[in-house]
Request: fold
Amino acid sequence: MSDTSSSRARLGKPNRVLLKLSGEAFCKPGGFGIDTKELGIIANEIKDALNAGAQIAVVVGGGNIIRGAELARTGDIQQATADYMGMLGTVMNGAALKEKLDTLGIDSRVMSALDIRAVAEPFIRHRAIRHLEKGRVIILAAGIGNPFFTTDTCAALRATELECDLLIKATKVDGVYSADPNKDPNATRYSELSFDDAISKKLAIMDMTALAMCQERKIPVLVFDFKIAGNIRRVIEGDEIGTLLSSDA
Reply:
């Protein structure tokens, strides 16, 4: 690890960010489906961050609707089919988020890696960038459109394609810890961490494919507590919150 302030200073205020939201962000802790209150919190946080001047793309998970990996592991459904079912869950979350953003006066588009033109535009890189340049929030659904890849990998891929300055990983804790802070009272939080350390320590941040892609493309990843009001805006404004993963750490 190196001096935290210098690496944070090099990051500066990002102009274009990709926000990775898990499906669990759409429901109450331990709940299921889409909770309207939680949906409102997400939309208002995105609006607040957008008003801070950044271009925002959002990759949504679908674990609050369906978990393809669990279906494949415990049932009679092949993993490829279960993964496609999970992708459809992310489209449902994306459609709900767009509707809520619309009520707040935020122009947004749902772009899907699967062809579902009745509810979402197909993901086309240049069109997505154009939406961002026009100040629209783009909501990226259906992962990368292929089974056996997580939405974390989708986030890393889309951040690369859209030339994002930062990938923001929204979690339920205030950063990356040396161990599970809920189980180990001696767990310590990292302010900054290198991709090499995160991979070698096998820290549960993102899947290894996603981390390796971010490392290769030099896209910093910020892990932070999404449930604290105003945190996304603070990231946009350059505040030092959460844990920053980078190649320079």
Summary: The domain at 4-246 is CATH 3.40.1160.10 (Carbamate kinase). The first strand starts at residue 16 and ends at 21. DSSP finds nine helices and eleven strands in the chain.
